[in-house]
UniProtKB/TrEMBL annotation:
SUPFAM superfamilies: Winged helix' DNA-binding domain (SSF46785). PANTHER family: GLPR-RELATED TRANSCRIPTIONAL REPRESSOR (PTHR30595), SCHLAFEN ALBA-2 DOMAIN-CONTAINING PROTEIN (PTHR30595:SF6). Residues 17-144 form the Schlafen AlbA-2 domain. InterPro entries: RecG_C_sf, Schlafen_AlbA_2_dom, Schlafen_AlbA_2_dom_sf, WH-like_DNA-bd_sf, WH_DNA-bd_sf. This is DNA binding domain-containing protein.
Length: 508
């Protein structure tokens, strides 16, 4: 049966990290089953791996076109694997798919992370005298663990990342076939062609989204995160909250965008759409002695892609706190709860040399990588730093605490936009007189006239500045402005970077 992954991308290492893929020219069950055991043990919680039989490799890269396997070989392999799988202790049954690549037949074995680690396997699966050992992945090799690794592997017994755990409070009937179909279509998996001939249970089982014996099947948490219309029903506060502070941190004035909720990939896409439309801006400047102008962004989109995807990928879905995005004139703050793995030193974040040992949500990462929504292992922070540098921006700040209870990313605005804000602030701080040129014949109060006079002098004046000059609090000034808008005397043109427009003149 087909696998829920794009096979062409898998072979080229585009959807899965290279250390999670092994290429085998032919069927050699000894080393293959040592690797199946190592992938099942998933020592680093990266999500198991794939063994591709029928393709040779050179320096870790596939040699194409494939060598391939003939039909008799494939039938023999499939029969042998039925018994070999039971020789793994405890038994482990990887998913298998026969694929055709460039006119040749190959076998793809998906050795997913097991639920009952640690696993052990005979050193030679076909030997008469079987000597069992544990195996783990070390880089791109399957090795016997040393004493400390063995102890750590045994300690991992029963410890399953949250997204791969079963949710015994929910029926798998709540999984949406529409969302499953849409996912398989997007990643161009051949499993899509089999959907109509499979029951929902068979489909979810092939995607390794169910847990338990046939009489008691429960969905894994990742299935609820990705393939239900409202994951917040199962994981409260699984949403993104965006708050704008147009006048900076010191000013209490703010406004909130509508909350963004839904499947994880949907939340990532909608959040990025909102930021692209409402926050991102481009500036062009002519450089003396250079024919081409330079264009920069206040925040490079590629950096936001990484930060937002990683915030929703690595958040703790047991913590009842949303992903928070705070938009200030001089920076963006993205905050998610459930910090990075304790194996990462705090100073590694600022250096950009972050190589986590384990992941909180290993399966979720696989789905997001298949959708091109996140980078491969340990590449997120280097990518963010790289695109910030290319944009001419200051480096972002990565913050967590000793308890790893949260992870915060501060992304500074490009310095050109800071310069523009400084110019506007200089205008705002000029001494104001209140010229009484606004007519009194339209029923405005004295304070409303004073507000209009300030705006007449400086159409870009902030509410905070008006409050300072008039000696009123922000909310009172906002009330006057709302009344002026109701009377069709005043309107706001543009957003936080816009200006006030008076709709009457002295001749009214």
């Amino acid at each position: 049966m087909a696998l829920p992954i794009n096979i062409a991308d898998l072979i080229q290492g585009r959807a899965v990290e290279s250390e999670r893929i092994e290429y085998k020219q032919g069927w050699n069950p000894g080393p293959i089953y040592r690797s199946i055991c190592a992938f099942a043990n998933d020592f680093d919680d990266i999500g198991g791996g794939y063994i591709i039989v029928g393709i040779a490799e050179e320096n870790g890269r596939p040699i194409l076109p494939p060598v391939g396997l003939n039909e008799d070989e494939i039938d023999k392999i499939l029969k042998e694997m039925v018994s070999f799988n039971n020789l793994i202790n405890p038994a482990h049954h990887p998913k298998i798919s026969v694929e055709e690549v460039q006119g040749k037949r190959i076998l793809v074995i998906w050795a997913f992370a097991g639920d009952n680690r640690p696993y052990e396997v005979p050193d030679e699966i076909k030997a008469k005298e079987k000597k069992y050992n544990y195996y783990i992945r070390y880089g791109s090799s399957s090795i016997k663990p040393n004493k400390s690794q063995r102890e750590e592997l045994i300690a991992l017994s029963g410890k399953t990342p949250f997204d791969d755990r079963p949710n015994t409070q929910v029926s798998f009937d709540e999984i949406s076939l529409t969302l499953l179909r849409d996912y398989l279509r997007k990643v161009e998996s051949k499993l899509l062609d089999s959907m109509d001939s499979l029951t929902k249970e068979q489909l979810l089982s092939q995607m390794q989204l169910l847990y338990g014996p046939p009489e008691r099947r429960y969905p894994r948490n990742v299935a609820l995160m990705m393939f239900t219309d409202n994951p917040e029903k199962y994981f409260p506060y699984s949403r993104v909250e965006i708050v704008h502070f147009p006048n900076g941190e010191a000013d209490p004035e703010f406004f909130e965008a509508p909350n963004i909720s839904g499947p994880v990939d949907f939340m990532i896409g909608r959040t990025l759409d909102y930021l692209r439309i409402n926050v991102l801006k481009q500036m062009t400047r002519k450089v003396k002695g250079q024919a081409e102008s330079i264009r920069v962004w206040n925040y490079p989109y590629e950096a936001l892609e990484e930060v937002i995807a990683n915030a929703l990928y690595h958040r703790d879905y047991l913590t009842r706190e949303p992903v928070e995005i705070r938009v200030y004139p001089d920076k963006l703050i993205i905050l998610n709860y459930g910090g990075p793995d304790r194996s990462i030193k705090l100073n590694e974040f600022q250096k950009g040399s972050v190589f986590p040992r384990r992941y909180r949500n290993r399966r979720l990462g696989d789905f997001l990588k298949e959708l091109d929504l996140t980078e491969g292992k340990a590449t997120g922070i280097p990518t963010i730093r790289k695109v910030m540098k290319m944009n001419g921006s200051f480096m972002p700040e990565f913050i967590t605490d000793e308890n790893r209870s949260y992870f915060q990313v501060n992304i500074p605005v490009h310095p050109w936009f800071l310069e523009e804000m400084d110019k506007e602030n200089q205008v705002d701080t000029l001494p104001h007189t209140i010229p009484h040129t606004i007519p009194h014949t339209i029923g405005l109060s004295e304070k409303q006239l004073e507000v209009l006079s300030l705006i007449q002098t400086n159409p870009r004046i902030s509410i905070r500045k008006m409050s300072e000059i008039l000696r009123l609090n922000n909310s009172t000034v906002v009330e006057h402005i709302d009344l002026l808008k109701e009377k069709m005397v005043l309107e706001r043109v543009g957003g936080t970077r816009g200006y006030w427009k008076i709709l009457i003149d002295e001749d009214d």
